[in-house]
Amino acid sequence: MIRGTSTLTAVRSMEGDRVTTLELFFDLAFVFAFTQLSRLMAQEHDLIGVVQAMTILALLWWSWNSYGWLANLAHADQGWVRAVMLVAMGSMVIVGVTVLEAYHDLRGGLFAPLVFVGAYLLARITHIFAFAVVSARPLRRRAFLTSLLAVVPSGVLLIAGAMIGGGWQLGLWLAAVVIEPVVTHRMSSGVDWRVGSTVHFTERHGLIVILAIGESIIAIGAGVAQEPIDLPILLGIVCALVVAAGFWWAYFSRLAHDAEGALARRDEGDRARTARDAYTYLHLLIVAGIVFAALGIEEALAHVGSAAPLGWFNAAALGGGTAGYLAATVWFRWRTTGETNAVRLTGAVASVLIVPLLGALPALGALAVVSLVVVGALGLESMSRGSRRRCGSGDRSTSA
Hints:
Layout: H1 21-44, H2 47-73, H3 79-97, H4 112-134, H5 140-164, H6 166-188, H7 198-224, H8 231-252, H9 255-265, H10 268-302, H11 312-337, H12 342-353, H13 355-360, H14 363-399
């Protein structure tokens, strides 16, 4: 394949290529689906609802990530790949629309669980053929086989779960979610996959993180949309914005740049394996933490003027989501750069330990405590980094 503008030609990516506007347009379908997941968890308001939502999030992630790899090998906005991206986007919009009925079909109309599965599988099957074509010629057979072995068994489980319903549905869908990473990891071992453009790959995942953080901003509006503005609401908004800004800082202040540099310095084979582990797998945990925390923010702001306790479920979402996000970024740094971050990991542990306290506090107090934990952890991290930098400069001056 060569660079060109023919609608019948896929244009290969080269090192240095960046994310296209079509990919950002494509991501809007997933932003919508993320908001639906928050609604699903709020609607169910129990552990089962959380597992249901996280299962769908994993399905959304495998789909988004598969097209991320596709666009890293061939330009998303040129040639026939453009049509593939638009078909997938339409399918994922339908998936997002049916999220709230994925487990509980409403009377009348089409059977929503099967519509959900059908739209999801349309996007995945379309990707199988597209990805095999744009893969390097020696890897096309392996790429096709890997995708097929991941999607076909999981698709059968998804269809069976949708048809059977009840507790069996969740169990079968969980099995379907697990199959994909296991098969992909096994089939990619020892194979010289390549990252078409390191800059594109890291930027692509950074953008989905920022869009997920945008879900926290949407949660702020959703939580107070039906209430007259007052001082508790304003204070709650400030605390929620501090948490969202902390999420941004934790990923984008240095982590994203350091990870990209470390990825670029690896040889081609090791780069692909690191990209698979750190971005394909660990970024699911990063996004899941944000989505879960956004639920806690929305529920807290919905009751921000009340003196009643926040409650265990909302506290677990707020504290647990924050902890999950911070811990996932620590794991991501370790996999890409080999560095650990004890301060941030301590912040993650603290966010879990304070869940009982958050549940006993009024909503505004819980938001304030979480914002203080996030600011405290990131502030101590910055101070520790600055201290190490000064010590390093002093050592060099002494040796000089």
